Amino acid sequence: MSGVSDAFAESGPSGPAALGWPRLPRWRGRLHGSDLRWSLAFVAPYAVLFTAFVVYPFGYALWIGSDPKLYGELLSDRRYLRAAVNIVAFVGIAVNVQMILALLLSGFFMRRRLWIKALLAIYILPWTLPAVPAYLSFHWMLVAYPQGLADNLISLLFGIEGPFWFNRGWLALGCDITAAVWKWMPLWTLIFLGGRMAIPQDLYDAADIDGASPYRRFVHITMPLLANLYIVSTLISAVWTFGDYAPVLFVSAGTPAFESEVIPTLGFHFALDFANPPLGIAAGLSVLPLLVPIMIVLMQRLKATEVQL
């Protein structure tokens, strides 16, 4: 793929030095007098809001959940242990499935056909809907009397009776994962679509001249150039999914008997239904030892990722 290699030939220094601009003295980068006062005036409202709605709530939660007895109580609760296993499965499956499918579908939506553009407008509708009505509609598609949409389709296509979707914990959790993927995959598809559109067409033209197959173009051009975007999107999606209680709360409601609960919904029940806010906050904070290493690994991977064509 010599054409692609030539397109990515090494260039000289970038930035102001490459343009011949003089480097400003260090003292020129500091603010003085009215500039400093105006800067502080603009920053102050944001600092107050950030302190009031981020720093204070998080610090207060850490203070409430700092009692070690709370975590001993959690570990002795079978519902918490099951929810901990469920949250790992929920995040691991939902995030990876939606990222992989979104990356592949973004290539499909790159095609310049009118019907594909119309299909894209329909495809993003689940993401544009508010979470509560979206997940409730998904719930009723599974349990509507006498048969939900899913059971009717199974009966029509295969001539068999569909299952009771929320009678088993693993099946109910699978419904929650499916609903989360259905809701959020359009967002990541649009993000990857924008990333693909930013790739210069010259690279693909050079690859065509070299006789590269679509698979090799995807592996050697698309994936390296979208690698950082993919990692950042995975990181954001993992953080969101760890704290997202809506799919489980409104699709399966943790049935049967807390078997499909995840830690966010279990903390919700502890704090509100069982009138034990400290235990609910402790349940939420217990996710941090698992979430922080994932963030560190992905950030290290982001720093180590380089474009190699």
- In terms of structural class, how would the helical and strand content be classed? mainly alpha
CATH architecture descriptor text: Orthogonal Bundle
Beta content: under 5%
CATH superfamily: MetI-like
Fold and architecture overview:
This protein has one domain: Orthogonal Bundle (MetI-like fold), CATH 1.10.3720. The protein has 15 helices and no strands. 73% of the residues lie in helices and 0% in strands.
Gist of the model:
By secondary structure, this protein is an all-alpha fold. The protein is 73% helix and 0% strand. The protein has one domain (2-7, 68-304): Orthogonal Bundle (MetI-like fold).
What are the key terms here?
MetI-like fold; 15 helices; 309 residues; single chain
